[in-house]
Amino acid sequence: MNGVKSFYLLGLVLLSFAAIFVAADVFVGGPRQLEGDDRLDALEILDKSLAKLATGDGPSYKAVRVTSVTSQVVSGSLRTYDVELKNESDTKQCTVKIWTQAWLKENGTNIKIKCGDEGDVDRTW
Question: What DSSP element (H or E) covers 123?
Fold first, then answer.
C-alpha cells in the first residue's frame, strides 16, 4: 500500500511541475522570446552577421525593424528573427535564422534568410 501512495504522490509532484512549466511558457530546449539585455545581444548578433554576409557574396541587408526575436538551445544557439530588411531601396519582411556554435573555430555560424517567395540565402562561416 505504501508503494501505491508513493507512486500517487510522485505523480502529483510531476503534474505540478508540468503545470508550472506550461503556465510559465518554459520548455527545456524550446524557443523563448528574448527581452531586455538578451534581446539587445541578439540584435547585435543580427547586425554583425548581416555585415559579415555583405562582405562576401551575399546580399547587403540592414535590419530596419525587428518584430520578434527568439532563442533556442540546439547544439549551440539558434536565434530566429522576424524582421524588415532593407537592401538598397527595397524593404521586405523576412525571417532570419542564425545558428551559432561558438566552440567551432571554422563554420561556427550559419545564417538563413527567407523573404516571402524569394530564394533563400544560406551561408556558413
Answer: strand 121-124
